[in-house]
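Exercise 7. Predict the joint structure of the components listed below.
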Amino acid sequence: MGKTTLAKNDLDDQLVTDVVNNAVPTVETSIEIKDLKLSFGAVEVLKDLNLTISQGEFLVLLGSSGCGKSTLLNCIAGLLDVTDGEIHIGGRNVTWEEPSERGIGMVFQSYALYPQMTVEGNLSFGLKNARVPKPEIAERVARAAEVLQIEPLLKRKPAALSGGQRQRVAIGRALVRDVDVFLFDEPLSNLDAKLRADLRVELKLLHQKLDNTMIYVTHDQVEAMTLADRIAIMRGGVVQQIASPAEVYNRPSNKYVAGFIGSPSINFFEGQLSGGESPSFSSGGNTFPLSDYHTSRGQLTDRPAWLGIRPESVVTGTDVDAQPFTAEIVVELVEPMGSDTLVYTTLANSPFRFRINGQAKVTSGDTMRIGFDPAQGSLFDKTTEDRL
Amino acid sequence: MTDATTNVRATPRGAKPRKRLTPTNIMLYGTLLVAAFYYLLPLYVMIVTSLKGMPEIRLGNVFAPPVEITFEPWVKAWAEACTGINCEGLSRGFWNSVQILVPSVIVSIAIASVNGYALSLWKFKGSEVFFTILIFGAFIPYQVMIYPMVILLREAGEGLSLITGTKIRLMGSIWGLVIVHTVFGMPILTLLFRNYFASVPEELFKAARVDGAGFWQIYFQIMLPMALPIFVVAIILQVTGIWNDFLFGVIFTKPDTYPMTVQLNNIVNSVQGVKEYNVNMAATMLTGLVPLVIYFVSGKLFVRGIAAGAVKG
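Solution:
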């Protein structure tokens, strides 16, 4: 999914060769992580993690705090020693190499600019350490500054920069290293909402321009959905699902992923699934027909299960009658959000919310007819919580 | 609407009038004045006495200002006052103290800052245990360690003599005392630096590692420039501590290398005929001058550094 490397290369050939002139074009797999384990004492933070990231891919590690996503990134960067397993970058086993020798650049949440150095000093520090000749340092710094549009700031100290400018410099520090892999550790979390959205777009443009492999850690699902070629959702040191944003949203691999992705979050019904030729799901006296449900398991069988319905899949008004499932509900609470409105209600004895057009006039206490196709939802086993 | 505008106009203009002589203020400043008076009185007596001649002192008016101001006691205290052994005044002790102070401060802070940096950022297996043991050292009374220290210095000196082939004495020399000051300053200084470096954002350290900087590069180029306030604190602590030290000075040096404090004690305590209070007072003032100057010069930096070092445990 999302690998349009060749087309991008044609478009931005000039820039790609300019900025990433030492990228290895023949290696298709950029990063490979094999059976990675990390424990702090008795606490297992990462458990037998396997991950393959292809050249030029934008992978987002998504999860709530403490899920091990930043830890994984630090392991890839070489800032944490792994307990077991291997990390390969660009076909080379770098498990025990120093961070600076792994061919990575890293951008941190707090920017981590050296406060006593100018922007120029910050950008060139790593190159000086690597004993890059002076003219080349100047050239690379100038090029990165041009790409990121921070040329007027080169002589300033970080304290004299705004948050967005600081983050640009931090990205520049990774850029001058001429590496193939960029690691981002929640780079936009310290910025205000508007700036965050702007920089998000810039990051995506930068990725299209450079075509580097990028690994991006965030807890913000909007960032994940908008930026990623693939999203890896982590929980308790285990990757729950790794797939394209659309796949993660439409076909979550388990109940946790379904609940984590999507805002407002998905509605769950607890009930009984009856399988067979025309399967259906019953909960709280309602029956949801599932004839068109696509399962990877061949056929659905009888079992207790969860049914998840996205708030966005509900239709109202004249389209209702065409839906396989319809119901009459009483509006309990309305949250107008401008572009659309969230309606809170109870359906099949479970709290249920859905999204309708923002122009619709609804107040609490109203009765409404709603409909949706339960087969577009997701079924999860009651005990294993895996997708059926 | 009109109500609002009239209200705005009705608000008073100019600075808010303040009452100065409130009961609270009288109590507050009264207490402060009494406390200040109480602490400054001895200093006043010392200065006044040191500026009097002996006949005037014999009159017994301790608090009276000098009728005839003389600086002779100061000169005598510095250059001529006698201990039991020599009559060179405090000057010899002053230069001894300087010779002890400068290397002690530099060596102890250099080692402790690297200690603190390594213990907070380059955690190794057992680093916490190491730190605990080091801190534990701060709670052991000095007296317990003095005799072992004497033996250690003596033996180490002999060992060095054997290796180098020249006669080296650590016990009884200025360098022995420098080692003692460095060792005894280590726990508290390491704690100070470790806490300061622990408050430096860890991502800065990580960024430097990704940029390929090593242990010393990160220390000198990233951490050192950021640690100025805590260095000032460490310097003040060490300068005053070492300058005011008496116990180690008297134990680990010989009469001709005695630091100023020991020299002062010997001047004040050796009596030949009359006790020269004015000279004693002047000598005491001279000895206390160095820490005083340090505090006055660095007051602001000191407070800033103390606050910075106390952030994280």
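Discussion. The first helix of chain A runs from residue 5 to 11.
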